[in-house]
User: Fold this.
Amino acid sequence: MAATTSGALTKRQMRGRRLTRGGRRSLTAYLFLAPALILYLAFVIRPTVELFGLSAFDWNGVNPTREFVGFDNFARLFADPLFWRSLGNNLIFVVLLVAFNVTVGLITASALARAMRGRLIYQLIFFLPVVQASIVTALVWKWIYQPEGLLNNALEAIGLGFLSHGWLGDPNTALPALALAAAWSGFGLSVVIFLAGIQSIDQSLYDSAKMDGANTRQMFMNVTVPEMRPVITVVFLLEMIGAFQTFDIVWATTRGGPVNSTEVLASFMFKRGFTDAEFGYGASIAVIFMMIVLVAAIISLLLRERNED
Amino acid sequence: MKRGTGVNTQHSRRRRVTAVAGAAVASLALVACGGGAEESGDEVLNIWYGSEPGQKDAMTSLIAQWDEEHPEVSVEITAMGPELNPPSLLPALSSGEGPDLWAGNLGSSQSQAFIDAGLVHDLTPAYCKSNWNKMIPDELAVIATSDDKMWAVPNSIESTGMFYRKSIFEKLGLSVPTTWEDFVSVVDELKNNGYPTPIGAAGQDAWPVSHLLGAMWSGAVGPDGVNEILFGDGTWTSTGMTEATEEFEKLADAGAFGPDPLSYTYQATMADLYNGVVPMTYTGGFVIPDAQAGAGENFDDIGVFALPTVNGGPISANASPGEGWYINANSKQADAAEDLLNYLFFTDENRTKILEGGLVPVGPVDLDQVELPSLLEELLAEQNKYRDNGVVPAFFELTAPASIGEAMMTSEQGILAGSTSADELLQTLQSTWETEKQAGKIISSSGAPKC
Assistant:
């Protein structure tokens, strides 16, 4: 009897133990997820929800009372020429940055993949600006672009002195000049990602192409590019989001000038919010800013999924 | 055996980790309970401010002296330049924290926002009781006053003028200009004699251009005209303002600011002045400590003259308010902060020390008792020549809402780039001013507080 009771208990305990083990696993998983989830809720979701709320108020950031204005901040924003100028500048920045880092990055990675010697050194050289503090990058390029800076000296040296001028002081060249500087600082990351992708391409595809008489350019266009499509989408997405979020290099060099020629959404938002103490209006810029990046990211992800299919 | 050893090792490691964590928690608890200033009975007075290096040194040493004389309070200074101050103050003060005392712009949108939110301590009782009203001129007190209450102590008068290299003028046989026509001739002569940038504009930073055009404006409209615009019904598009802006545009079109006026920062422009690459630049006395260090033996070769008026009107002394010192309304150290302000800005001995540090304090100073750098003496003497004609500001952007400052600087850059006209600049300012006026964001003209 005792043995039976003991045996029944043991079975129940075993069943309980099995359930408990399964439950424990889930609990452990949730416990591991909890800190990240709590932080995400507290520092991403909650501020985002508050941001939406704030955009419906006229508030200077410190006054205890906020005046509800509904969609007035958005109406004002869409009528503000500087918003459209900033958005336009951002789009130009995105196009230049993505075009440079995707095309030149892919070509460079392809060349590096074929290089037998010094690949690591080149990788390090290209990657160095990525680990450099953005303020250092900004100051280095500010110096390069000065009227007596490195670029103009180099142009003089090769007989192109007639092109030299203050690159950041000219409203026509300031934005492309900054885009190039920003591209340089993110270029290494694109190269490393592309290189990893190229190295995972089946070598037999290149061998077959070679047997068919394909030259280097044809192999690049017909093997590398099609095989790299998912990786290109990832780099495209990363570069695009990065370009939209551009702030530090603009702030450290031109502050959006001269004559608003380098004003981007982030610097425009910062000025309205913190300099002019217009937090409600600043929040409405942030909301639109977020929507644009979100839509762009979703489109890119959908494209990526379609490529993978 | 190995597994067992591993478990033992894990246990012992866990015990060590637990012990270390326990010790850390205990240490933190001890620190939290009794460490630092509270243990010694000190109260902390937090100050946020930043200024020119020489000035900061003079101010820092005076604050250190006050700190020594007040063992019951411990001063902690956070060097916070004007660029970091605005984005840091907003969240700090709105969350009930932030400094007890800070230096910030007078009359900017942000300062007014703090005042409206009840975050700024009312200094009117101290202003009357400690006789600050006898030191701070009414025209300055007005800028720090709203609703008949004084909210900030203006720390300085920023005298400005056209700084130039005497040896270059001598070499070319040029005299210091006293009329606008003479000034334009000097610019032409410099340009025709190997100086492609006669006036360093520092257009990349924009604010130095604002000071030059501000001086041209205030010279053209005079003290009454400035008051009309800032506190009355005057407009930014008045005749004097238009004349001055058009002259500025003519200078820009004639290449007076060089081939790349928007490519140089203030720092680079000053370096060019010290090196003799740029013969003239418009700036203020605040640069003198830096000039002493940066110009070396060329320091004595730098002179200064008052900018002639574009329309032939009398030249006035040019002086603008510097920063204002505010006390946090939630500060438990408000009395100590008031005492420190009194010590810094309203005792003769310390006002002299501040002046020697390169910052001109508000109110009278006995110059005979002060050993000043020659350039500062020259600047003050030049201002004194025209003081009878009244005092006008060059820093319009510091006493106006931030949007005015921004519109001003962007449009001025536009003139330098050739993409904005004088008329467009003034129209932009007028419309921005009207918007801000309607929103109640400009300084009211209630006058200085009554004691």
Notes: The first strand of chain A starts at residue 57 and ends at 58. Strands of chain A lie at 57-58, 67-68.
